[in-house]
Amino acid sequence: MTPRGEPEKGVLDWAVLTSYEYEPGLARVPDAVRTLDGTPVVMHGFLMPLYEFDDIHEFVLVATHMSCCFGIPAGINGQVVVRLSQKDGLPNTNEPIEVRGTFHLREKSEQGYVLSIYDIDGAKAFVKGY
Fold first, then answer.
1. Are 33 and 17 spatial neighbours (Cβ–Cβ below 8 Å)?
2. Which of 30, 36, 43, 58 is the most exposed place for a label (fewest CB within 10 A)?
3. H or E element in which residue 117 lies
């Protein structure tokens, strides 16, 4: 966001991804989200580690710290699984990060539970800071 609260130009705004209520099978996904599938995106958010806690190459990107651990969960369409292609991973940080990569809309399930609907692969990321 800019200092005036407007979305940054060229950055995928979280409001687009969370603009609808998720239903299994991706039934209610709006065209604004569907057209992003397979396109390069830039996103800002916060790192929520999955398996690694240092030199992190795969994580969940969320819009705010309040989306992890002690706050209100982001919901399935308020999180993006990120897989980095860069050699060096990210540190486990609570500062904002920037991610660039190819966005995908694909429902991933395991043992009957939907784990994710958005992911970014081939990504490059860095700690953007405050």
1. yes
2. 30
3. strand 113-127
**CA-to-CA separations, 16 to 59, 76, 77, in angstroms, rounded:** 21, 13, 10
Q: Is the distance from CB of 30 to CB of 20 less than 8 angstroms?
A: yes
In a domain, 4, yes or no: no
Residue reference for tokens 């980095």:
84
Rounded to the nearest 5 percent, the helix, strand and coil shares of the chain are 15, 40, 45
Q: Letter for the amino acid at 55?
A: D
CATH number where 75 lies: 2.40.50.870
All residues at 6 or more sequence positions from 103 whose CB lies less than 8 Å from its CB, including other chains: 12, 36, 37, 38, 39, 40, 41, 80, 118, 119, 120
pLDDT in tens, 29-73: 999 999 999 999 999 999 999 888 899 999 999 998 766 656 677
Number of separate domains in the chain: 1
> What residue numbers bound the domain in which 27 lies?
14-127
Confidence (pTM)? 0.89
